Inverse folding.
């Protein structure tokens, strides 16, 4: 087989094996993710069952409607968790069915208790009533314990499945490493055995022939390019033997031999050049792999921002506008419980979507620097998990581009969560400093500690988050060092360059510009009233706000704008008394627009408006000159109070 053909065949074979192994690894990862979700659902079912038992006892003891309402909400939550289960095996399906049967029986017993209490059964026969409560409590306790036991068994079965899948994933990773090792070893054999040794043998034969031994014959070991060259040398030697009697012919043969030697040297140089090119190509691909890893980090954050941006700029704006219009309609109608329930549902939906968008991509990450972002992480961790986090930093130590700021933010978030999850510590310290053109982020705790060598073990099943941070830090030119030992706490030191030379800056998704459609305008310049201008990049939000004040005779809508730059130009034209200003907008945000408008028109009152409940944003708006900062989910009455200047709360 020719050397070229053998190289192509080997590359194709190992490439196919690599693709198959990679596909199996991806499928295994997806299965692990699905099993982990089922584990969370089973744990949620077990918690719901326990809480139902406590709520049942409270209701049997005190007969209060509040305990009954809480029981019914928790029962609905349990039903929702059961509906999320997608189970394949028969044993798991049997456990899920047992939970559903116990749930239905528990609901029936609780309904019987409610019916007995509502019928006044306790006033007729006190002894029978107490016996009835004891029997009911026993029946509900049996159903609760049955659901708890089945949920724990189901969660354990899911964990066993996850462990088996992780073992399979480790095997696949070793298989990938073995494939690469075999591929490189086979290339070494091809280069060393088939090419270099054949060339060395060919060179030795040519030296013998060049010394005058024309009877020497080169042995052809392989029918490849080097073998063809050996055949050519043998034919040349045979011709030399025939023409040794003639000097002229001998000189001609010598010339041909020199040409053949030059061809051999050229072939040798060509082969060496190909080896060098292969080496250079391998190094280039290694650099490309590092660049792709950095782009993967950025792509992950872009997807987080994209989802958060869609929630904030589409869903939340529509919900807030719908709530404003509903409140406007309610003022014209008699009190209706159904409309009040719709208003409450809209408020809950806004709150949940805001919380989700805030967790995906916090506003402070886009509107503030690295130190403020780390301060937000520390405060958030303290509020959410009760971990007392202290931040020590120099305000001038900032990342030079957005990508590095996001990377450090996510790493600090992951390290603090790792302390909450594993360290059993009550406090932690975050330090930010700079050294030799690098940023150094240190996270320290006095928890239970661990042996860092476990991360280097091939059989370790923990520390995946730390391994990810370490590998990504290496890809961007940094490093993660870990100092820890059991019982003595841990210190995680992340060192990264201040900038990424080949990393693209993260950008927000493009926002489609809305056309202006005012709801109500001032009829003439001499009309009396409060002149109001609305600034928001969402048309549906502006229309909702304008329709809310459409029935206010002493408020005039004199203009609207869909970004901060346009708001500044419109304010110069219409001279408003009040500007309702959104914070997050394209071209120029609300903070910068407020600052510029207050510089030109100090008497204009500005009301900040945002979907985010962020104290840093509120403080930025107030420092820029805003009189009031309100949330878009607030009631229309609060916004009207702010327009009239009667509000006392500026947050």
């Amino acid at each position: 087989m020719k050397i070229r053909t053998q190289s192509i065949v080997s590359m194709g074979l190992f490439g196919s094996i690599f693709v198959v192994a990679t596909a199996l690894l991806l499928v295994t990862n997806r299965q692990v993710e699905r099993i982990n979700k089922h584990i969370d659902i089973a744990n949620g079912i077990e918690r719901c069952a326990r809480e139902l038992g406590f709520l049942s006892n409270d209701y049997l003891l005190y007969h209060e409607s509040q305990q009954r309402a809480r029981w019914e909400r928790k029962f609905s939550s349990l039903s929702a968790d059961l509906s999320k289960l997608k189970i394949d095996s028969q044993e798991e399906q049997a456990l899920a069915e047992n939970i559903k049967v116990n749930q239905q029986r528990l609901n029936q017993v609780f309904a019987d208790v409610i019916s007995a209490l509502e019928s006044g059964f306790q006033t007729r026969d006190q002894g029978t009533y107490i016996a009835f409560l004891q029997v009911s409590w026993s029946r509900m306790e049996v159903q609760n314990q049955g659901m708890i036991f089945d949920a724990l068994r189901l969660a354990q079965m899911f964990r066993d499945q996850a462990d088996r899948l992780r073992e399979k994933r480790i095997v696949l990773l070793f298989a990938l490493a073995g494939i690469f090792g075999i591929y490189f070893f086979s290339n070494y054999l091809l280069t060393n055995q088939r090419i270099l040794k054949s060339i060395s043998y060919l060179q030795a034969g040519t030296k013998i022939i060049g010394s005058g031994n024309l009877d020497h014959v080169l042995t052809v070991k392989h029918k490849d390019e080097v073998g063809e060259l050996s055949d050519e040398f043998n034919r040349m030697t045979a011709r030399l033997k025939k023409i040794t009697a003639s000097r002229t012919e001998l000189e001609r043969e010598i010339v041909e031999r020199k040409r053949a030697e030059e061809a051999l040297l050229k072939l040798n140089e060509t082969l060496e050049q190909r080896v060098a090119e292969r080496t250079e190509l391998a190094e280039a691909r290694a650099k490309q792999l590092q660049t792709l890893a950095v782009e993967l980090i950025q792509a992950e954050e872009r997807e987080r921002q994209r989802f958060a941006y869609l929630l904030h700029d589409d869903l939340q704006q529509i919900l807030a506008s719908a709530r404003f219009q509903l409140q406007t309609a309610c003022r014209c109608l008699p009190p209706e419980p159904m409309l009040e329930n719709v208003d409450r549902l809209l408020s809950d939906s806004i709150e949940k979507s805001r919380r989700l968008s805030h967790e995906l991509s916090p506003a402070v990450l886009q509107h503030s620097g690295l130190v403020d972002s780390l301060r937000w992480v520390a405060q958030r961790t303290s509020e959410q998990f009760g971990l007392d986090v202290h931040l020590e930093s120099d305000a001038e130590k900032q990342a030079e581009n957005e990508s590095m700021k996001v990377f450090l933010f996510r790493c600090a978030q992951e390290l603090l969560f790792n302390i909450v999850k594993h360290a059993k510590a009550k406090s932690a310290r975050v330090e930010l400093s700079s050294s030799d053109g690098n940023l150094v982020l240190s996270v320290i705790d006095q928890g239970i500690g661990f042996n860092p060598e476990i991360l280097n073990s091939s059989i370790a099943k923990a520390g995946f988050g730390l391994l990810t941070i370490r590998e990504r830090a290496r890809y961007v030119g940094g490093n993660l060092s870990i100092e820890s030992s059991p019982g003595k706490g841990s210190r995680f030191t992340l060192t990264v360059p201040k900038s990424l030379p080949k990393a693209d800056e993260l950008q927000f998704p493009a926002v489609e510009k809305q056309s202006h459609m005012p709801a109500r305008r001032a009829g003439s310049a001499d009309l009396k009233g409060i002149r109001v201008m609305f600034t928001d990049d969402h048309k549906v939000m502006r229309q909702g706000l304008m329709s809310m004040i459409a029935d206010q005779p002493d408020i005039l809508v004199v203009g609207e704008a869909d970004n901060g730059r346009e708001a500044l130009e419109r304010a110069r034209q219409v001279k408003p008394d009040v500007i309702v200003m959104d914070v997050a907008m394209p071209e120029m945000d609300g903070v910068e627009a407020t600052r510029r408008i207050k510089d030109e028109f100090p008497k204009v009152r500005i009301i900040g408006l945002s979907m985010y409940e962020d104290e840093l944003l509120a403080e930025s708006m107030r420092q820029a000159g805003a009189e009031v900062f309100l949330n878009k989910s607030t009631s229309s009455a609060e916004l009207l109070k702010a327009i009239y200047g009667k509000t006392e709360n500026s947050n």
Observations:
- The longest strand covers residues 427-435.
- Residues 184-290 form one domain.
- The chain has four domains: 3-182, 184-290, 363-507, 530-644.
